Amino acid sequence: MRDLQGALERYGYHCITPDPKTLVGPAIRQAVFDAARELGPDDLLVVHLLSHGGLTKTGRLALVDAAGRVDPVNSVGDWVRDFADTPSCRRRCFWSTAAPPARRHSSHGS
After folding, report:
1. CA–CA gap between residue 80 and residue 49 (Å, rounded)
2. Are 82 and 99 in contact (CB under 8 A)?
3. In terms of pTM, does the model score above 0.85?
């Protein structure tokens, strides 16, 4: 992650890397939306989410937080929708890297 931050800073981007230990449950989403609210009209928010993914009870892909939990509030699809529905956030960019959950295979009748 430091390599990515260094590359972006060389091109003039201001990077903030929160302490991952503080990003649990709703605090992850809150940190992203707080950053978006501080942007000016010509600013761009790049959010790099380096996390595993997990499925919520309803089957949505969400981030696995620092405590190893999947909280439905961290559904990245919902975040993108919420950004698109917020006029001041429409020109923002997401760069999401979340590994999908592993699927369990069963062998019936073997």
Report:
1. 13
2. no
3. no
Least trusted range by pLDDT, from 1-5, 23-27, 45-49, 86-90: 86-90
Amino acid 88 reads S
Q: Which amino acid is at 50?
A: L
pLDDT tens profile 26-35: 998 888 888 8
Ramachandran quadrant class, 59 (left: phi over 0; alpha: psi -120 to 50; beta: rest): left
Compute how many other C-beta atoms are within 10 angstroms of the C-beta atom of residue 29.
Answer: 20
- End-to-end CA distance of the chain: give it in Å, rounded: 44
Residue type, 32: V
State which amino acid sits at residue 30: Q
Is residue 99 predicted with pLDDT exceeding 60?
A: no
